[in-house]
Structure formats: structure tokens, C-alpha cells
Amino acid sequence: MTQQPILIIGGTGKVGARIVSRLRRRNVAVRVGSRSGEPRFDWTDQDTWDAALQGSRAVFIVPHDGELLTRPFVRRARDLGVQRIVLLSGRGVDVPGYAGDNNAAGKTHIDGEDAVRSCGLAWTILRPGWFAQNFSEGFFRDAVLTGEVRLPAGDGAVSFVDAEDIAAVAVAALTENGHEGQTYELSGPRALTIAEALALLAEATGRTVRYVPLTVEEFIDHLEGEGWSKIDAEAYADAIAPIRRGMDAHLSDGAQRALGRQPRDFARFVTDAAAAGAWQG
């Protein structure tokens, strides 16, 4: 096994866990950066940074949304001898009007990308769109289980990207030459409306699940009725807005450029997730 480990910040998350699994299958030494990891890593406790970074040859960064911590972290990584940085950013970072003016995650990504590009190390930036896994592991799963997904997305389409593809691109960038200085925009191979995505999910699972379009006001009221704060409800509505405005339908070529193949289709995602029991119980 390679002696100098690769540090995966967010190594227990949707993308990070898949990266860790792929690297371990390649017999690459991995250090999982999380509050339950060894050594422990906590974005909000800078005293934990050095132990996680010390001796690491490359780092995958899932930034801490809402705070501008990527820049000092990258600076510390450079000082401790890290040679390569791969940053998980997001779609729309450089698209005017994509995120609201008060979008905390957007500000984190903008500052983080600038920090990485100017750090003097080999760097790669990944900009995925909406994850397909939001239906199986994230935002939409509970709603899928109720049989109704209520969103203010109108009839907008989304080129959902499979987290397996994001992980594959990250592993390539962390372990291979030729990805330095690249920004990979990542999407699936086609755009689907929420209703179309749910129809594929229903076909794969046998579940009855439908899309219920809401106005922004109805959506915020719905979330507040479930106990959300108004601020959080409005932030979620803002995150959905680009779908409604048709800004998430375009296809990106990052997977083809990085991996030399087409990205995984949403239909394959739902088939695999259903077989793994993602929507049981």
C-alpha cells in the first residue's frame, strides 16, 4: 500500500465515501477526514487540521458551506507538504443569477475556487450539478417514501449527475497526471424533469410516487409546517430556483474529458439503487 495517504475531507459523505472505497480497492492509503475519523478532523476546529494533513500527499476537499475556511486550509496544506488539491465545488459558481445574492454555499465555493487556483499546488476543481443520489440518500428521499415530491421546480429539467461519476473523476484527479489546472463541469448524459425522474424511479421500484409542483410561497409554507425555520425554508427554495428557471438542464462534458466515457444515466442509477434497497422501509 502507498505509504503517503490521500486525505479525503468529507470522507463519510455521498461523494467522499465513494472516493474512499475506490481508493481502497486500488490499495491506496486513505485518511478519512471527519469528526469520527482518526485522526479527527473538524472544519470548525483548526487545531485538528494539522494532524489530518501531516504526511498527506493529496487532499480532496468538501468545503464547509457558509464559512470561508477553504483558503486557510489550503494554505496550511501547502505549508505541510501536500502536493495536490481536488476541490468539490458546484454548478453555477460563475453563472450570474444562478445562486441568490445571499447564498452561503455559493460564496464558499467562489472563495474556495479562487484559493485553490492561486495556491501554487497542482489543483483540480469539480463542479457537479444536482446529485442523482438526492433521491436515494439526500434531500428528496423522505418525500419519495411518502409518494409525493413537492417542489417549486415548475417543469424545469435537470441533468442529474451520479455520485459514482463524481467519485471516479475525483479519484482520477487525485492519483493520475493530466488533470492539473482543470475545472470539470459534471452532469448526467440527459436532462429530466422531476416528473420524468420520478417516473423512472417508480418503474424501477414499483412504488407510486408523483411530482407535485408548488409555488415558492406554497413550498415555504409547507416546510414551515414541517418545522423548518423561515430562513432555512427560503434557502431551500432558492436552491431549487435554478431548476425552475431552466438553468440546470444543460449537459456538461467533464466526465468525458476526465474519464474518456459517457456519464452514468439516471435510469441506471435508479436500477442500481433499487437493487441495493435504497427505498425500502
Please provide a brief summary of the model.
With 281 residues, the chain is α/β, with parallel strands linked by helices. 40% of the residues lie in helices and 15% in strands. α3 runs parallel beside α4, α7 (194-205) packs parallel to α11 (266-275) and α8 (216-225) runs antiparallel to α9.
How are the SSEs ordered, and which strands pair?
Elements (H helix, E strand, L loop, with lengths): L5 E4 L4 H12 L4 E4 L15 H5 L4 E4 L8 H10 L4 E5 L15 H14 L4 E7 L12 H6 L1 E4 L5 E2 L4 H13 L6 E5 L5 E2 H12 L4 E4 L2 H10 L4 H15 L9 H6 L6 H10 L6
Parallel strand pairs: 1-2, 1-3, 3-4, 4-5, 5-8, 6-10
Antiparallel strand pairs: 7-9
Task: Give structural notes.
Residues 10-176 form the NAD(P)-binding domain. It comes from Nonomuraea marmarensis. InterPro entries: Ergot_Alk_Oxidoreductase, NAD(P)-bd_dom, NAD(P)-bd_dom_sf. The chain is an alpha/beta fold. The chain has 2 domains: 1-128, Rossmann fold (3-Layer(aba) Sandwich), CATH 3.40.50.720; 132-161 and 188-250 and 262-276, Alpha-Beta Complex (UDP-galactose 4-epimerase, domain 1), CATH 3.90.25.10. Helix content is 40%, strand content 15%. It is built from 11 helices and 10 strands. The strands form 3 sheets. A 6-stranded parallel β-sheet has the order 2-1-3-4-5-8, sandwiched between helices. Helix 1 (14-25) crosses helix 6 (163-175). The N and C termini lie far apart (39 Å). The relative contact order is 0.14. The model has no long low-confidence stretch (mean pLDDT 94).
Overall morphology: globular
End-to-end separation in angstroms reads 39 Å
Could you give the count of β-strands?
10
Task: State the helix count.
Answer: 11
Task: Give the tally of structural domains.
Answer: 2
The fraction of residues assigned to DSSP E strands is 5-15%
From the 3D coordinates, which CATH architecture of the largest domain would you assign?
Answer: 3-Layer(aba) Sandwich
Query: What's the rounded overall pLDDT mean?
Result: 94
Instruction: Supply Rg.
Output: 19 Å
Q: Name the strands of the widest sheet in spatial order.
A: 2-1-3-4-5-8
Into which percent range does the helicity of residues fall?
40-55%
